[in-house]
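Hmm, how's this folded?
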Amino acid sequence: MATKASKASSVTSAKTATATADLEHDEPSAAHDHDHADPKLAHKAAHGATVSEIIKIFVVLIVLTGLELGVVYLPISKKLIVTGLVGLALSKAYTVAMYYMHLKGETRVMKIVVYLPMVFPALYAVALMLEGVYRHLVHNLG
C-alpha cells in the first residue's frame, strides 16, 4: 500500500506537471498556432482556407473549365482560340497555386522559388519554335 507521503508526492507531481503544461500551452509558439474557440479558425490557421473558400475556388475552376470548352466552339480564328485557351489555362494554374498550394499567404521569396522554374519550359518552347523557324528558312532558302 502506498503511504500518505508517496500519495502526496504523486499529487504534487501531477499538479506540477499540469501547471507546467498550462504554462507551455499559454506561450505562443509556431507549432501551436491555432485557436481552440473556433474550429473554422483552427482549420484556416492550419491549412490556409476554410471549407467554404475551397468550395468557392472549386466552382471558379469549374467555370474556367466550362469557358475553355466554350472557347473551342466560338467562330473565331484558331490563333484567338489558342490564345484564349492558354490564358484560361494560366488562370486555372494561378488559382490552384494560390489557393490549393497555399501560396497566397507565402512570402515573396517562396513565391519566386515556386514560379521561377515554371519560366524554363516556356523559354524552352520558344527556343524550339525559333529553331523550327530557322530550319524551315534554311531548308527553303538553301
About this structure: The chain is about 80% helix and 0% strand. The first helix runs from residue 4 to 26. The two ends are 105 Å apart (CA to CA).
